[in-house]
Each structure stands twice: as C-alpha cells, then as structure tokens.
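ASSEMBLY PREDICTION REQUEST
Request ID: AP-0331
Submitted by: J.K., bench scientist
Number of chains: two
Total residues: 1057
Priority: normal
Notes: Please return the full assembly, not individual chains.
Input sequences:
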Amino acid sequence: MTKYIGKEMSRVDGFAKVTGKAKYAAEFKVPNLAYGFIATSSIARGTIRSIDTTEASKAAGVIKVYTHENFPVPKPATATPANDTSYKALHSNKIIFNQQPIAFVVAETFEQARYAARLIKATYNEEKPTTDFLGLIDKAFVPNPERAARPRGNPEQALAAAPVKIEGTYTIAIDHHNPMEPHGAIAFWEGNKLTIFDKTQGVFMVRQHLATTFGIPPTDVQVISPFVGGAFGSSLRPNYYPALIAAASKDIKRPVKFVYTRTQMYTGNGYRPQSWQKVSLGAETNGKLTSIIHEGINNSPFAQVYTDNMTGLPRVLYACPNADTKQKIISTDLPQPAPVRAPGAVTGMFALECAMDELAYALKMDPLELRVVNFSNVNPDNNRPYSSKALIECYRLGAEKFGWSKRKHEPGSMREGKTLVGWGVASGLWNAAQLQASAKVVLRADGTAHVSSGTTDIGPGTYTAMTAIAAEYLGIQAEKVKFELGDTKYPPAPIQGGSFTTASVGSAIYGAAQNIKKKLMDLANKADDSIFKTAKPEDLELFNGTLRYQKETAKSVSVSDLMRKNSTAEIEDTFQASPGAERQNYATGAHGVQFAEVKIDPDLRTIKVTRVIEVSACGKIMNPKTSHSQEIGGIVWGIGMALQEATEIDHRYGRMMNPNLQHYHVPVNADILDVETFFIEEDDKIVNPLGVKGMGELGMVGVPAAIANAVFHATGKRVRDLPITIEKLL
Amino acid sequence: MRPFKYTEVTDPAVATRSVAANAQAKYLAGGTNLVDLMREYIATPNELVDIKPLGLSQISPTSNGVSIGALARNSDTANHPLIRKEYPLLSMAILAGASPQLRNMATNGGNLMQRTRCPYFYDIALPCNKREKGSGCSAVEGLNRTHAILGHSADCVATDPGDMANALYALDAVVKVRGLDGKERSIPVNEFHRLPGDSPEKDNVLVHGELITGIDIPKNKFAARSYYLKVRDRASYAFALIAVACAIEMDGDRVKQARIVLGGVAHKPWRSTEAEKIVVGKKADKGTFEAAATAALAGAKPLSHNAYKIDLSKRAIVVALERALAG
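STATUS: Completed
Returned structure:
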C-alpha cells in the first residue's frame, strides 16, 4: 500500500506561487542592477549599413549602448564548436530574420533602457526576404539523407494495389508557445565566476553554453532557475540573451537584468514551424491498413537545420506492413523554430488522424472501429512488443464516457435544434523516454529529508511529484521532505522536456532512497541482535519512520532510534539513474484517445468545442491531481491549435504581424466548455522502476485532429488547414 | 515610452486649456488604449492631462432620455439598471467588448476615442498612414483579413474596433463636447467618427483640445427588440470580425422603425439607412431581413483576404434581426 504515489496531492509550491513568494528568474533582488533592452531590426534579410546610437546614448539613465560595432564578443579559450549554428546577438552586421536584435541598451531603469532603444536609428542594405513557405513547397529537401527513415515493406506497390485509398494534404500555421512568464535573466560576475538567474528548462544546458561561450570551466558558472512560469519548449535551448547579458555585465562590471517584451518573445524563443504534409493511405475493404505514405515539411532557417519530426511517431502507431515517411525542410528567412508542446507528434498526428477519418468515410466504417482494427501491440518498424500499450482500453472507456455508440455516421446528420453537432475521434501517442539523471537524498535522524536534483519545474508539478516519490520511498511524511531543483549546484539532470522528467529524476530519487534503505539495514545489522541479519534489502521497506519487512510489517525498527543509537545525524546518497537494459527488448510509448464534440451555428458557422473526453494510458499515475491538470492543459492547447492559433507573416517584409496577445489568439476561459480526462493505468516496470511514462505532451497530440474530424462530421466540410477559422466554413 | 509631464485636473476649463496649448498633449482617462499605444511608441505625447478627477461619471435620466458621463466606467454603464432596462442594446454591446478588467478601467468617452487595432498601425517599423501620414498603407495589400469592406480608401483600410459605439449609433446618441471656448457642442454620434479618405490620421471630428463630457441617448421604443451580435475568432477578448447592433420597433406585424449598424467593417460604425428603409413598413420575416442585409452590403468592396466578411455580414444581419425580433 502506498501513501503518496497514486494519491491526490496539492502542489507543494502552490502556496508560494499564489502568494508571490516563489521567485522567478527576473525577480531576484541583486544590488546595483542595470537593466537591458534590445532594439530590433525592421528588415528580415540583409546587412546593417549604419547604426546611430548618439541620441540613445545621451538619453537619461543610459549606461551603455551596444551594437555589433562595439559589442564585446566573448572570446572563448577554445573555438566555438562547428556544429553550433545558433543565432548569437550583435556578433555581426548580418540580418537573418526580422526583429533580430541590432542593439542592446543598458540603463539604470527598464523604462529608460526601453525608451533609449527607440532612439536608435539604423539603415540597411536590404535584400528581399523569403518567408512564403507554402509558395516554396517545390523547394523542400531532405536535410540529412543519411539519417532519413527507410521505408518498411513496399508502400508504393501496396498503395497501388489497395482496394480503398485516400490522399490528403494538410497544412498548419506557425504557433507560438506564449508562456505566461516572459523570458528573462539576471547575470553578474564575481571575478571570473558567472552567476545567472535564467528562465530555462535546463540549468546544466545553459551552464555548458555559457562556459563554452566565455571559455571558462562549467564549474565557474552557476545557473539558477527555481521557478519557470511555463515554457512548453521555448527554453529548451539557451537562447541568445544569457550570453548577451553576461557579456554586457562583464563589460560594465554590474549585474545586468533583461526581460523580453511579449513581442520580442515571438522572435526570441522559436515557435512551432509552419508545416505541409501529404498522407496517402491504402486499406483492404475490411479496414486493415496496407500502406501509409507520409511526407512532412517544415520551415527552417537558411543557416540551420531544424526538423520538426512529424512523421516519426505516426508511422509506428498502426499495424501496417508497408510505410514510408519523408521529412523535409524549406529554408526561409524566419528565426529558428523550436520544439513546442508535443513537437512533431501533434503536427504529424493531425495529418494521420484526419487521413484515418477520411479513410473511415471512404470505407463507410466507424472511425473508432477503423482504429481498433489497426491496433498494433508491436512497433511495426522492428516488431518489438510494447512494454505496455492500453490503447484499446482507452478507446473502450472513452467511447463509453462519450456515448460514441449514439453517433450517426453521416456528416451533418446530428443536430440540436438548428445547431449542427459533430463528433470526432483521434488517437494520440508520445514517447515513454527516460534519460540519465541524478539526485541527492539526505535523510536526517529527526525524520526530515532534503532532496535535490538539477532539473527544472516548468509547471507540470515536478516539485510535487518528486516530493511524493521521496516521501513514499523514505517512509516519511511529505511535509518532512524539502525538495529543491533548478540550480547547477545540485546533481546533474537533463532538461525538462519530452515528458521524461518524472521517469528520469523520479528514478534517481527512487534509487537513492533504495540505497538509503540498504544503508539503514547495514546500520541496523551492526548490532548483534538485529532483526534484519538475514534480510535482503528488497525484502524491506521504509514506512512511517520505520524500517520493516514488507511482508511481516510488525518486524520493524524506528529509523530515528536506529540513527541516534549509532550517532548518525544523517544518511545521504547521490544516485544516478539510467534507463534499464530490459527496455532494449521492448517498444515503449504512451498512448491515448480524444473524443471531441463541436457545435456549429448553422448560419454564422461559429464553432464551439462543447465537449472533450480524453483517455490516456501513460503508465503509473503518480499524482492524479496534477496529472489531470496536465491533460486538461493539453486539451486546451489542442483547442487553440485547432481553431485559433496562428502567427501571421507578411511575406513582403518577412515579419510576424501579430506578436502579442491581442492579435495572436489563444483560448480564453469562455472557449473551454466540458473537458474530462481519464487514465487507464498500466503496470509497467520495464519502462522504469516507478512505472511512469510521460503525459505532458501526450494530452494534446490527438486533439486538433479530433476537432477537425468533428467539424467534418458536423458540416461535411473537410478542413485540412489549421487553424479552422470561420471563413473556412462559410 | 517617451518621457512625459503628468498633471491631474479638477476643472474642465483648465483641462481644455492645458491640452489646447500643447499640440503634443493628450487627455488621459482609463488609459486602457492610450497607455498601450504609448508603450509601443505609437502615441508619443509629452504631456498627459489626467481628467479622472473631473467627475463626469453620472448615469442619470433626463426628460428626454439618459445622460451618461464621459468618465463613467464601461462596466458601471453596462450594469446600470436604467441602461439595462431602457437601453439593453448598449449594455449588450459594452459587455461584448474587451474583458471585465478592461471594462472596469475603460471610460465611455475613452471608448469612443479608441484607435484601430490594425496590426500595421501597431508596428512602428512599417508604413501606416494613420500613424504617420503619407508613409503608405501596409494593410491594403497586406494581411487584411480583419480589415474594412466598406468606406475604405486607398490610404487606409483600418476598422474602428469598438463595440459600445455600434450600439450608440443605433440609438441615435449625441456626444457632448466642451470646446476650447468653454462652450458645449453636441455632435450626433453618427457624425462623430469619420471615414479615412485621404486623412486617416483623423479618427473623428474633434479638434485638438476638445473634451468629451458626456453622451446623451434619447428615449426610444427599442428596448423590447434589440440585439447585439458579435462574431469573433474566440468567445471573449477578441475584436469583432463582424458585429451587428440592431433594434426594431413593431407596429402590429409590421416594422415601424429599425436600426441596423455594422461593426468591424469600416473606419467607423457603419449604420445602413438603406437596410433600415427596406425593413420599415414590411413584415418582419427572414425574406425582409435578407433583403436588408443585401442592401447593407451593396457597396462593399473586399480586400485580398476579407471577402468572407461580405457573406458573414449578411448572415450576421439576418441572425441579429431575428434575435432582436424574438426579444
């Protein structure tokens, strides 16, 4: 019986967050602080001909104005790695995207820096930018042919021979992350040691970046990021501003703080690239897939390769002997894209799952039944069995909760009064990854514990989950556990992304707790009359402050007594957890299904997503409360992507035209109606000892397709272009 | 933002004198639009005259209707019992706009003065005749999905973003303005905003320094049958793609009087007297409403990305009139 794992637990950091006690990167108090603000380019491509900072330099409070002409480019001891093609601010006069930084003003206050930045005048040698992605489809290319996925079977032949086939082209606009907290940082130097408070998904990643940039040992860089107000992939790489402000701080010998405006975030952190996909499906008349051909293209900067791998997961979801996927890019003069929640998967699954719906109609078959027919319990690329894949159970529960059996198949056949009603379904999947991670656990004789790991918590509830895991396996109350993260002074952990934190860091804490249990057993066994003389560590557990036999729980000793008796104030263990060898023999993944109901005004064609039922199978649910929150958030994201979100580019200028929350629409509360999430728990100790899989990304993967399919069901109109705005239904 | 001088005034005479004396001065009321524009460097006043201490926040019945203070808050106006009972169209329109937080700050006078949300107007790196006269219009051949289909010019295709004003147009409101000479003048709201022509920098007919003091709405018999319909990209906190403020007064089964105003289609709220004329004297049915909708859009000229607005406007007019009729 567990005390914490699988039980509802409120966020341990919730009180600090709602009372403002939780400090985000740019909120730390640092004396003698100077404030930076960037001025940005008005062109997308070309070079700066001249830049006049005279007026800005004279403005009140201005300490220094940096441009490419005077910026102290860090001189690392070793050359920048050749594969580092990331954008670096103020390194040259070259402009490679619109709203690129052209100057950095440092002043006594934020307002002074911002005003002075407006006074900078630049002239350019302007070149015509290329950003019209959809007009460039014939320019798409496979960036790394040697690494491209190979076809399985003979998909072309199978498609030609298929009695039923469909083909569709699917396009999705650029989407931005738009976390609540704007990116920001504070950097300062003490001698050659650099400290930076940064909003990031990976403190060790930023540390390595800054150490390389400035040619100093990583141990001379401390990166601190205890709270992150949402990131969604926007801080999975170092971004350009940490190096920028660290260099300025070194130059003016003062701490420098920098925070993006909302508009600057649009070109500062990447975005979900624009995409074009073509899917061809072939099937037998009984619905069995015989061929999947899926081509995906996204935009990428000229100087870099950014691939949004939108074909990787879709090609393994269904049992289909023949499949081919091609992943291409088109070079444009836009800034570098970035992973955005469920990167690649949500894009690719929009195409595949809309195509499956089209196939269902071509087959005159229920869309859910088509998915059941094509269920695969092995990865069709390598025939490895899934360690667990309760997708059929998800379909079954979801259909029951949604009332799917009452669905009428014909489009436009369901009405509520005059209102058009549409029901759609789509599957979702995501990886169940585990990365190497470490954690330190200190158990004290007073029954408290300090647990730490250099991971981050961008909002999913990592503080809470890690506290629960530590409390569970140390056998103490959660209130007695202090868990800390977001600092390079703690044991190394990977970035928080890809939904692998609980599996990775949680396994490290679990491992450390197991070692502590063993150390306690050894301590007990110093006494001749120890009851654990013949015990194996795996026979024992820590529970309610005791070390005891799992089976004969009455045979126990008090941990506090044991430690005091041995004059042991604390026992610590630092554990590095790595993926288990057994995983190699299996396919692993998290799966789920989304059912969506839309209601569409017959005259105005306005769409409401009135109901979404989501069922996810992602291993053990550590904390139902935060887990449901994750999945609800994923649904909200999916609704936004399906109906509202789009970053608009004026191709004449190569410029984003709606970089703010008044013009870029994300769902508001009034857009979110009935949303219910369920879990089918899987008992899977192969993925990791805790049996957990990722869920943060999974929750949104199928949502846009489910909604688009529901829109088709309501109206008979197949919209293959997201977002589905009103004019597409008129 | 540009550094500026800030003063609070308690006397309207001092207010108008201060602003009139400085071409770069502006009145500050709720600030919900102006402060944003200052942050983005679109508005660069060097002096703000804060008029909130002037009061002007009454919502009171008069012998001929209601007098609403320029500085009454949008939220207070929309929720006032008199407005809800006698002028529900105005209440609906205000509540369709912005967010509760913004409506709590925004004033009625300020609402009439809010500027377009054209994205090119908001981006100081790009040409915009409204922001910088003579620099050109980026929207006319750019991203203009949300732009005007009626009354636009080669120099400007921006739309008025307001909701409240659409209702005021339908209700024949009168804007009370204090002139530089201290005298009050009355401007029928239908003549308050202007079409862009070759001077899109001017949103309305006010002279620099003139101060809106209030809005009068005459009595009417529309309360039983009026409707504000707003079609937008999300359920709240989005500007109208198309809005319709409409009101009907019936005489038996015939329409005695009607008001049909479109929002989101032009540089000002677009009252269609042509559509109103078609409805008056007719049976209030779908055929009549469709004929009115066709008439209202007869002169529409779509841009490259907003042809859908013509169809959507027609649909919206019919739906709004049907809902108004249903009461």
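REVIEWER COMMENTS: Chain A is about 25% helix and 25% strand.
SIGN-OFF: pending second reviewer
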